[in-house]
Design a protein that fits this description.
By secondary structure, this protein is an alpha+beta fold. The protein has 6 helices and 2 strands. A hairpin with a 6-residue loop joins strand 1 and strand 2. Helix 2 crosses helix 3.
Length: 147
Amino acid sequence: MNREDVTDLIIEAKVKKGIKWADVATKVGLSKEWVTAACLGQMTLTPEQAAIVGDIFDLPAAARLWLQEVPYKGSLPTSVPTDPLIYRFYELVSVYGTTFKALIHEEFGDGIMSAIDFKMDLQREPNPAGDRVSIVMSGKFLPYKTY
């Protein structure tokens, strides 16, 4: 068994049981965004969190241990994503990446937005012309240091 096998077990149980990620997050006590990333193999769970997730998805003991291991981060199988939804994020960064960079540097200076000290909120935004996806990302600014 490896971490990808555990992710497959979780997805299989989620489909069979009709589980919603938001319900899992409520039981774990953290955001749906972080808990979903953890269940999909991108975050490390504590023993307590792994027990909760394990119970929800009826995971064997070995799988619960894998949930507590630091994963290899980065889940895309190709450098350019082929899934249409994920590709749109790639496209967004391709088109607006230089704009993000220019505006962050103008506002904060030379540095980066952390993906470690980071949070995200994804919500449905009702709109008469068709519902919209609202994603708010917030990451700590990390300036480059001189030495």
